[in-house]
Amino acid sequence: MVVERGVSVRGYRLKVIGKEMKRIYIFLLGMVMLSACANMGQGPQGGPRDTIPPQVTKELPMNGSLNVATKKVEITFNEYIQLADIQKNVLISPPQQQAPEIKAIGKTVSVVFQEDLLDSTTYTIDFGAAICDYNEKVPLEGYVMSFSTGDQIDSLAISGRVYNAANLNPMPSILVGIHANHHDTALNTTPFTRVTRSNSEGYFTIHNIRQGSYRLYALNDISRDYFYQPGEGLAFMDTILTPYTTREMHWDTIWYDTLGLDDVTGDTLFTRQIDSVYEHEVTRYLPDSVILWYFEEAKQRKYFQRILREEQHAFTLVFSAPQDSLPLLEAMRYSQLDSTASDSAWVNFMDYVLIQSNKTHDTITYWLTDSLAIRMDTIPFRMTYQFSDSVYNIIPKTDTIYAIYRQPRLSEKAREKYLRNKQNRKLELKTNASSKFNIYDTLTILSPFPLDSIHASGIHLMQKVDTNLVPLEFTIERKDSLGMTMGIIAKLKPEEAYQLTIDSAACRDIYGACNDKVEAKLKLKSLNDYSTLTVQMKHFDPRARIQLLNEKDVVLKELPALSTGAVFQYLDPTTFYLRLYIDWNEDGKWTTGDWLTHRRPEPIYYYPAKLKLRANWEFEETFDHLALPQTESKPRSLTEKPQKNSQQEY
Question: pLDDT per residue over 414-437, tens digit each?
Answer without folding.
Answer: 878 877 877 789 999 999 999 999
